[in-house]
């Protein structure tokens, strides 16, 4: 018996780390994560970020709520990282898992962009494991790029990469919301439609890209620690409620108004936020009205990532999405009609698609979502810089 037990223990010790690594958990750190966070872009990551799954900001069984204690961030698998729904006075509900996705993908794609720029690649493509669509980037370089000294090229490439990383990340997560609206199910369950542009998603995604940029400038801490600190600072800035019970209570107050149903399979998301910054270049959060812990708090809007800085260094980039989901034809027809092409141009076509989605939402949920519908109440937005 002791021999058999020892054999089984040996198998667990040897095989469990291999299984976790194969599943993307990564028990051994990437080389880039062992140094300072400010060096991550030049060092790069060994693997793409691990897959995480978010929650609905609805007080129904199975949804996790959190307070101000969010644990420690980890690019790889960790028992000490917390996910779920928090509530903030100036940012509304925040899906912490979506935020972490935005953080790690921004860092990864910034590092990937830097590598490609230093090699002079004409472009590259990327995709998230939960989606089938692939994002393509074409890069135009300044004419003297190859003649610049290595350190100058590296410094410029880093600045350009810090623009490409958040831009590509926010594009991909926004595209995920679009495909989910049109029926794509990354996990194959029917309730995923309710998550498309749910009121907390886009702001949580954008928040992740901003926190990543803050962490990547940390010259003292390693990446995971820098992200943990940056998250805590941002959540305090937004006025996070301290307990999970309070966050759940705020969500429960919206039952029957912003959502209905008691269980996941009997659930209807009524409140959506289609703001991805296409009108004014900013995303404004959806805040629950009259929260007792948030007197006189105004929503804090943030600018969406852009590629404007590329022109300062003589670069330009074209970003296109190649849909590969079963739902692709329906989406492509919105832009191209009966003769659909294979790729969506992000700069020119996303606005067309989002206009259609909002009109569909207006027909289903009411005129407040109609892009031509005038605001009946003034919006007070505190601009974040």
Q: What shape does the CA trace take?
A: globular
Supply the helix-strand structural class: alpha+beta
Main sheet makeup = 4 strands, antiparallel
Q: How are the strands ordered across the major sheet? A: 3-4-9-10
Number of domains: 1
- Alpha-carbon Rg, integer: 22 Å
Distance between the termini: 65 Å
The total count of helices amounts to 10
User: H/E order of the elements?
Assistant: HHEEHEEHHHHEEEEHEHEHE
Uncertain runs are 1-28, 376-383
What does this structure look like?
There is one protein chain. The chain has one domain (36-120, 144-307, 346-371). Helices cover 40% and strands 12% of the residues. It has helices at 2-22, 40-43, 96-119, 150-181, 201-215, 223-238, 244-252, 309-312, 328-336, 346-365; strands spanning 85-88, 92-95, 123-126, 134-140, 259-263, 266-269, 282-283, 300-303, 316-322, 344-345, 382-383. Strands 3-4-9-10 form a four-stranded antiparallel β-sheet. A three-stranded mixed β-sheet has the order 7-8-11, covered by helices on one side. Residues 1-28 and 376-383 have low confidence and may be disordered.
Task: Briefly characterize the structure.
The protein has 385 residues and is of the alpha+beta class. It has helices spanning 2-22, 40-43, 96-119, 150-181, 201-215, 223-238, 244-252, 309-312, 328-336, 346-365, and strands at 85-88, 92-95, 123-126, 134-140, 259-263, 266-269, 282-283, 300-303, 316-322, 344-345, 382-383.
Relevant terms:
alpha+beta, four-stranded antiparallel β-sheet, 11 strands, globular, disordered N terminus
């Amino acid at each position: 018996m002791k021999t058999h037990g020892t054999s089984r223990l040996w198998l667990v010790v040897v095989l469990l780390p291999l299984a976790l690594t194969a599943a993307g958990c990564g028990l051994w750190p990437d080389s880039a994560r062992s140094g300072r966070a400010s060096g991550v872009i030049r060092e790069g990551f060994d693997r793409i970020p691990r897959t995480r799954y978010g929650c609905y900001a609805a007080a129904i069984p199975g949804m996790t709520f959190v307070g101000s204690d969010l644990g420690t961030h980890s690019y790889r698998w960790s028992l000490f990282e917390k996910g779920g729904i928090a509530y903030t006075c100036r940012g509304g509900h925040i899906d912490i898992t979506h935020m972490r996705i935005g953080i790690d993908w921004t860092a990864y794609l910034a590092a990937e962009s830097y590598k490609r720029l230093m090699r002079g690649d004409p472009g590259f493509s990327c995709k998230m494991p939960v989606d089938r669509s692939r994002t393509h980037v074409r890069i135009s370089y300044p004419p003297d790029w190859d003649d610049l000294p290595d350190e100058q090229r590296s410094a410029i490439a880093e600045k350009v990469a810090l623009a490409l990383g958040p831009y590509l990340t926010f594009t991909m997560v926004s595209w995920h919301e679009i495909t989910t609206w049109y029926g794509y199910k990354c996990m194959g369950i029917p309730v995923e439609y309710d998550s498309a542009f749910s009121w907390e998603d886009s702001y949580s995604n954008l928040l992740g890209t901003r926190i990543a940029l803050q962490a990547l400038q940390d010259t003292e801490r390693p990446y995971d620690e820098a992200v943990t600190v940056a998250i805590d600072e941002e959540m305090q800035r937004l006025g996070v409620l301290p307990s999970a019970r309070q966050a759940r209570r705020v969500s429960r107050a919206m039952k029957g108004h912003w959502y209905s149903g008691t269980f996941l399979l009997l659930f209807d998301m009524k409140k959506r936020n289609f703001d991805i910054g296409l009108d004014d270049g900013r995303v404004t959060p959806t805040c629950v009205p009259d929260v007792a812990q948030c007197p006189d708090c105004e929503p804090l809007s943030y600018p969406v990532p852009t590629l404007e800085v590329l022109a300062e260094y003589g670069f330009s980039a074209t970003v296109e999405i190649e849909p590969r989901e079963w739902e692709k034809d329906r989406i492509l027809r919105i832009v191209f009609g009966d003769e659909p092409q294979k790729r969506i141009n992000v700069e020119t076509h996303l606005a067309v698609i989002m206009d259609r989605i909002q009109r569909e939402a207006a027909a289903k949920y009411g005129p407040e979502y109609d892009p031509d519908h005038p605001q009946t109440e003034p919006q007070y937005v505190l601009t974040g810089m």
